[in-house]
Write a structure and sequence with these properties.
This protein starts with a helix and ends with a helix. It has helices at residues 3-24, 30-35, 42-69, 74-102, 107-114, 121-153, 157-206, 209-217, 232-243, 245-248, 253-261, 270-299, 311-319, 322-359, 366-390, 395-419, 425-446, 457-465, 471-489, 494-504, 523-533. Helix content is 76%, strand content 0%.
Length: 537
């Protein structure tokens, strides 16, 4: 074991421990444990949002995809960037306003209140979706941590998974939401530094971009083609397959919970979009080039890796002094922990608050509820640990499966409930039930995480058409259609429609020929202005 690497990592671990101790002073009630008492600054909430979003997928899964697919993998970055902007445009401000109105602490709280469901079915379905897919998501993060420790410290992947579980579970149990948010802020900065430093060092050693592309072309010219060498309709399907992450952003509980915690919903517009947009652009560029240039280095014989998803930690150990490599390894572990901690917290709320307290009606003191949540965190972590050790071990695939289940289960109903006054509880129940069952069957029994030509019967025909497109992308729109149809066949309560109109109907501006009335920019105009000024459009 490299003790210099270990020293750098231990320094990082001390920082996390201090934050957990500090945050514990602010974690005395259920509201503080799950949403930080709605006192989280927009900068912290935004960085925490993005850190919890990208996970080990950013530091391991996506670079591994760029390593294997080449230039075509950049479509995934485009999907993630515009998915981020869609979240701040479509979900963030309205969800914070509604959550404050209903005093909602969790996403199931909001959905039950918004759809006025007195049957508890929406809360039960929400908890089921969260437990099934969030546990799988946490398992993917544990696997990512295991690979990072294996590459950085020379231990086995299983040992690395166990270390990840112990560290992560400890500080989630200690500090709750405040610990999660502020460790996420630190982790976001570690991730940013890692994905700036490592690609630059790789570019220098490989001899520049021309030298890298020449080396890659000598082995596989398709890796330099933006559509993987495909043309026509096949090229379109290729791009959709990678960019399909965009729809998933609308339904991730561990991300949208951040919006519910912000002190001022208005700041989710300009500051939120600006901070998250800049951070996301930088890290996605860095992650892509780490994998792309890492492959060129392997072709040139400058470095060796036994797993494409280990390319970033391998580059860190290869380039940097051992103590600094320890900090970079910490940055990679940061990505893993910043997502898994949020997911563990959301999963614990699904059992402790949504099932035990709200459905079963067990009345306990706020401190007791927090303690129960901490026990649930330990249990969910244990189940995820088993999945991580026995699962496929491919982070990109594991994350896509879990991401898709949450996207289909929550994305359509959440988006419609925020923007359409006509959506009904019956539609929510049917849509969420369909999303849960269909994702489990399609992803676990028929396709795996993406359409493929080898699927049985009729599904094989679809697989030939949509080969490589994640199942959740198509299923998202099917679920959206189902919710709309059921809503049109049923009727929402009049007071729910009236509340929606009161909260979100715009006040018209009277105009005269003599003077024009100044107004603030809309959310759409803010997004367009940011995209234009940053060169995205």
């Amino acid at each position: 074991m490299n003790f210099g690497v270990l020293f750098g990592f231990l320094v990082y671990l001390v920082i996390l421990a201090y934050i957990g101790w500090w945050a514990n002073r602010y974690t005395r009630t259920e509201d503080q444990y799950f949403v930080g008492g709605r006192k989280v600054h927009v900068l912290a909430a935004t960085l925490s949002d993005k850190a919890s979003d990208f996970s080990g997928w950013l530091m391991l899964g996506y670079p591994g995809s760029a390593f294997k697919a080449g230039l075509g993998a950049f479509w995934a970055a485009i999907g993630c960037l515009y998915g981020t902007l869609a979240d701040y445009l479509l979900i963030g401000p309205r969800l914070r306003i509604y959550a404050g109105k209903f005093r909602a602490i969790t996403l199931p709280d909001y959905l039950e209140a918004r759809l006025k469901d007195n049957t508890k079915l929406i809360r039960i379905l929400s908890a089921a979706i969260i437990l099934v897919f969030m546990t799988a998501y946490v398992a993917a993060q544990f696997t990512a941590g295991g690979k990072t420790f294996a590459e950085g410290f020379g231990v086995s992947v299983t040992t690395g998974i166990l270390i990840t579980v112990i560290i992560l579970t400890a500080y989630v149990i200690t500090g709750g939401f405040f610990a999660v948010v502020w460790t996420d802020v630190v982790q976001a900065m570690f991730m940013l530094m890692t994905l700036i430093i490592v690609p630059i060092l790789a570019l220098v050693e490989v001899g520049g971009l021309d030298s890298a592309t020449a080396a890659i072309a000598s082995v596989d010219l398709a890796k330099l083609h933006p559509f993987g060498g495909k043309t026509g309709f096949a090229a379109l399907i290729f791009a959709i397959g990678y960019a399909s992450w965009i729809v998933g952003y609308l339904g991730q509980p561990h991300i949208v919970t951040r919006y519910m915690s912000v002190e001022d919903p208005r700041k989710l517009r300009r500051p939120g979009i600006f901070i998250s947009g800049i951070w996301t652009t930088i890290v996605l560029w860095g992650a892509f080039f780490a994998g792309f240039l890492g492959y060129a280095m392997v072709v040139k014989g400058l470095i060796k890796v036994d797993d494409p998803e280990k390319i970033v930690p391998a580059l860190a150990v290869h380039f940097l002094p051992s103590w600094l490599a320890g900090f970079v390894i910490a940055g990679i572990i940061s990505a893993v922990m910043s997502t898994a901690d949020s997911q563990l917290l959301v999963a614990s709320s699904a059992i402790a608050r949504d099932i035990y307290h709200k459905v079963l009606g067990q009345e306990l003191g706020k401190k007791q509820m927090v303690n129960i949540s901490r026990v649930v965190v330990s249990i969910v972590a244990l189940v995820a640990l088993i999945f991580a050790i026995k699962g496929p071990g491919v982070i990109y695939q594991m994350v896509a499966t879990a991401w898709g289940g949450l996207a289909v289960g929550f994305g359509p109903i959440l988006t419609l409930s925020l923007w359409w006054k006509r959506v009904t509880k019956e539609a929510g129940i049917v849509g969420m039930a369909y999303g849960l069952v269909s994702e489990v069957l399609l992803e676990a029994k028929i396709y795996g995480w993406a359409f493929n030509p080898d699927a049985p019967g009729f599904f094989g025909t679809l697989g030939r058409i949509f080969d490589g497109v994640p199942v959740f992308f198509i299923n998202f729109f099917i679920t959206l259609f189902i919710i709309i149809i059921v809503s049109l066949l049923t009727k929402p309560p009049e007071d729910v429609v009236k509340l929606h109109e009161q909260l979100f109907t715009k006040v018209p501006i009277e105009r005269t020929e003599k003077r024009a009335i100044a107004r603030t920019m809309s959310q759409a105009e803010n997004v367009f202005a940011f995209a234009t000024s940053s060169g995205l459009l």
